[in-house]
Amino acid sequence: MARQFPPLARRRARAMRQDATDAEAILWSYLRNRCLNGFKFRRQVPIGPYIADFVCHDRRLIVELDGFQHAGDEADLSRDRYLVSLGYRVLRFWNQEVYQSPDAVACHIVEVLEGRA
Q1: pLDDT tens for each residue of the chain, 117 residues long
Q2: Could you say which of 10, 75, 91, 117 would form a disulfide bridge with 111 (CB–CB 3.0 to 4.6 Å)?
Q3: Is 52 left (phi over 0), alpha (psi -120 to 50) or beta?
Q4: pTM over 0.90
């Protein structure tokens, strides 16, 4: 059965997919079409009151990209606690990490997906 999200959340997620940051576009090129060792990811997925950047539902993994405006952000900690309470593991990367070393970011994600990290 398909998940039902409030229309506002679906519209906002769709708008966020169409207006991706450069870092999101770079990482999505690694995650889309099962390119990352066959794991399926979706992007800008509504989960409860939040929209997660990238989600692998099979492995209950959420990948978030953050700009420096998120440094020490209590809202991010609260959001992570909520997502963890639903059984997800949350990985956070700085946008700068994706710009400088996208292969390293992708490798770390694979390690987590395969239970090696």
Answers
A1: 445 555 655 565 555 555 668 999 999 999 999 999 999 999 999 998 899 999 999 999 999 998 866 556 678 889 999 999 999 999 999 999 999 999 999 999 999 999 987
A2: 117
A3: beta
A4: no
